[in-house]
């Protein structure tokens, strides 16, 4: 615990350069993300928000999807840059993990290492995906961080149109939560995983059966009414001690989030996803989050990136 609060020497591959934008003045009342992040690069990380980019197309490519998610971190930084700061919190950008070609497994390993270091420094790591294969690296980092603490119940709440419990011969963007289930089995941990926003036509019967087999609670997109959502999230939070929130942007309607590999024909309205973010922050249990599947190549006037940035804003400084 001696490292608590110290700036992490996180093993990322690239420093982020995308922080720029309008400057109205230098006082605290004028602050926007790009100013605050630039000022705070080397500060103490205790209670900081630590951004880590995961530049990967490998999982989506293996999953036969539309590639472009490796451009997600840059687009998210651009969308976050002009956002005004109303509540002071240290914000740091730890740079990007770059997955070259099909080198997914080493990339996930590096991401896990970065997450462990950020958590050990007392930060809230927020990972900017990347396809949903990002989640294996994020979750692995959290499992390793809690390796000596079996009593703490670790929960994963996935906001997603898909279960991502595919049983494949290698990891993809469709397998991360089965991969994490297996990892938790190896660590003798209970698997607490819930999904909100599931599309019935977007998941085969095999995937519904797998969710049933693993005891995964889920809420269909069509059942995502405000009270149902609140109860679902509340019941899940009651069962766990620390939360990993993973947001697959294809949980949002295609009109709000067209820039993803698999846009949702139905989707959960933005304000309901925002309400979930507020609920989990208010619980005090959130320890790590990622926002995945942004594909800027298919975005329209950055609307997916802007929606994602608003969710990150809410998790971080809302
Ligand atoms: N990340 C997961 N993606 C979905 C893709 C579904 C689709 O391409 O229609 C999945 O594998 O289930
Ligand atoms: Mn997903
Ligand atoms: Mn999805």
UniProtKB/TrEMBL annotation:
InterPro entries given in the database record: HutG, Ureohydrolase, Ureohydrolase_dom_sf, Ureohydrolase_Mn_BS
Residue segments, region Disordered: 1-25
Role, per record: Catalyzes the conversion of N-formimidoyl-L-glutamate to L-glutamate and formamide.
Enzyme class name: hydrolase
Cofactor binding mode and count: Binds 2 manganese ions per subunit.
Entry GO MF terms: agmatinase activity; formimidoylglutamase activity; manganese ion binding
Matching Gene3D superfamilies: Ureohydrolase domain
Family the UniProt entry places it in: Belongs to the arginase family.
Catalytic function, reaction form: N-formimidoyl-L-glutamate + H2O = formamide + L-glutamate
Residues that bind Mn(2+) 2: 160, 162, 248, 250
Pfam (any one): Arginase
Name assigned to this protein: Formimidoylglutamase
EC id: 3.5.3.8
Pathway terms, separated by semicolons: Amino-acid degradation; L-histidine degradation into L-glutamate; L-glutamate from N-formimidoyl-L-glutamate (hydrolase route): step 1/1
GO biological process, one term: L-histidine catabolic process to glutamate and formate
Organism annotation: Glutamicibacter mishrai
Cofactor(s) listed: Mn(2+)
Binding site for Mn(2+) 1: 132, 160, 164, 248
HAMAP family associated with the record: Formimidoylglutam
CDD domains named among the record's database cross-references: Formimidoylglutamase
Annotated coiled-coil segments of the chain: none
Keyword terms: Histidine metabolism, Hydrolase, Manganese, Metal-binding
